[in-house]
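Subject: complex prediction, re-run

Hi both,

The earlier run crashed halfway through, so I resubmitted it with identical inputs.
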Amino acid sequence: MLSYILKRIAGAVPTILVVVTVCFMMLHSVPGGPFDGERQVSEAVLANLQAKYHLDAPLYEQYLHYLNNLIHGDLGASFKYADWSVNDLVANALPVSLTVGGISLVAALVIGVLLGVIAALRQNSLVDYFVMFLGNFGSAVPSFIIGPVMILIFCLWLNWLPYGQFEMTPEYMALPVGLLTIINVATLGRVMRGSLIEVLNSNFIRTARAKGLPMRTIVMRHALKPALLPIVTLLGPLAVSSIAQAVVTESMFSIPGLGRLLINGALNRDFTLVLGLVVLIAFFTVLFNLIVDIVYAMLDPRIRY
Amino acid sequence: MAAKVPAGTQLAAKQELVRNIGAEVESLDISQIESVPANHVARDLFEGLTAIDSSGKIVPGVAESWTRKDPLTWVFKLRKNARWSNGEPVTANDFVFSWQRTVDPKTASKYTIFLDFIANGSAILAGKKPVTALGIKALDAGTVEVKTAVPTPFLPDLLSNPTMAPLNKGAYLKGGKDFTKPGKLVSNGGYVLKEWVPNSRIVLEKNPNYWNASTTVITRVTFDPTESEDATFKMFKAGQLDWTDRAPSGSYAKLSKEMPKDYRVGLTIALYYMGINNTDPVMKDIRVRKALSMVIDRDVLTGKVLGEGQRPAYGLFVKGMEGAKVSAYDWSAWPMQKRIDEAKKLLAAAGYGPNRPLKFKYMYNTTDLHKKIAVFAIGEWKNKLGVQATMENQEFKVFLKTRHDGAYQVARNGWNADYNDASTFLDLLRCNSPQNDQKYCSKKVDALINQGYASNDLAKRSAVLTEAGRLAMEDYPLIPLFQYTSPRLVKSWVGGYFTSNAFERFRTSDLYIIKH
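This time it finished cleanly. Structure:
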């Protein structure tokens, strides 16, 4: 397993390198630069700015300069936010995104698995229909519709929760966490239901039933573990999206997290900030997929690396 | 200067204010700030030789007085009790250090417009002269001498901007790259930096060492960067904000009725216009440009479509601006039908009519306001002249490049004055000016502008610059539409707020909270 992990980490390096290279090229080919504004700067000032950020060098030199900094853990200076390095900005935003995304993911996992199991065990019952409805609703209705409705109800009509600013306190986190949880519950619940039904219909469960084992024992001891495998597969991408790609949610609730930074970075043509976030997202994707693979092996003894 | 609380006013026990500034600040380093939000915060942290009060009037800042020795030389006497937040005195050398740092090409400041007016500023920025050549000198610890590149009667106005404030050299060197962070930033304004969470909040507290601390009433101000007008409106209603950067657009009638005490609208020194690419094969014909301008009904646009108190514009200059008089086209007083008839004749003379309709593209960047105006203008042109204009919207940065490159025919544009003088608007039309997206160039106009700038006689200067603006606009290089307003929500209990402040430059130290 250790050699597998090392191999995966080694394999991740070229992946991240490709991501950085493609993103670097794309950013530099987009029209409009970081210093374009309503008020044009003079040529002399533009030259000074380009020299400061090494933008006056040939593109390959800029690329090598960026890579060299990256290897040393330096994501560079933000073009827009002069007082902060990209490392500073990420360090400020990451805990926020991790907290909101992490809590919502855990909540969605617990609720989603639970609902999925209940629905699978009570097929074609009201509970099952409810879970199916929830799954379809969460998948079909986008977060930018559910979010404002939640704001309208809880912040403006009922006046239970604050809106607009963000603090790491339960009242501010309730809605964004709730929204992300609903979206993830929908996916996880549906997958869990389908997976468990499939497992319950398999031969080894039939054998267990024939032996007269009680349903609770069958589910807990024999069915749940293999049924969780698709859930584990999903967790990697869900974790990444919960943390780094909650762009809509973070904008909607004014959360100073990575998603909002990414939007502002792209709009401002803050190349280094966007690249830094892309590297981070690529890193998390690799990391979470690695964790998923390890958990996979733990759940299914047939899988060996 | 500082809060002027009217006699008999009962002040609230808690003097704290939460101001929305509409965006995250790019920096708190006065050499790097350029945006309006950053200037709002910096104005509370730093004070220059002069300052601006809540009504928009230039008042003494660190300098208690100044004299203009000759057309190019000014001498500022600093007040003896001016102190940094660490207790050190503010000296003339702090100004010299600050300005020289900003003008240094290595600092790579983006917003150097004020330094262009200081002697040798442009040459230093271009790396052609050393920073020591800048036209600022400390005659002694309490006296600053400033030499300007051209006669600059509005210099006190320029110097009220945070970019021209002093910098504490010791704190800057000690703080290194983090010198603007809480606990390290040493400021000389009414407030000190307590907390800065990017994209979340900036908190300032009263600076006890500020020379005018005794009349500074508000003890704590929080700057909120929330961008959405809709979100800030809800936050304002929920009591989370005392001040919004902008009220939701299109809500003038509703808010002025429902929240008359909170809804405050003032004219700003800013012009919304349509830029015309004067080198475009279709648009280089003055008859076409004139016809397009004539038929847009500014009264309907401002009164019905926008409805936020905007003022129709028929010239380059706007109301409240110094240094030139506002002028308007003669036809602006004509009935619309007469304007339409004349415009039709112009187009016909240019070869356009029902059989050969004029076609062009109107470009704008994506916002509701710009879209609304585009739809209105295209409707005006089509209905009144049969012109077939198409709309194209672009993402902001792409749009800016398109416009600066002149890759357009007609495009949305606007200008917020940096300082109160006609020269800032004339930059839109000067040959080779970086702000001249219109690619317009008239030697006659440029000669008049230069003549005006060189003049030491204020009345003559104003007359010449007025003529320059009028003459340029007779060439129809752009289509002025309206003067902007600043509709904003400010709680009725925030005292010291005046809508006459056309630059919207408010220092928290001038405000106070009334008991409510």
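The first helix of chain B runs from residue 36 to 45.

- K.
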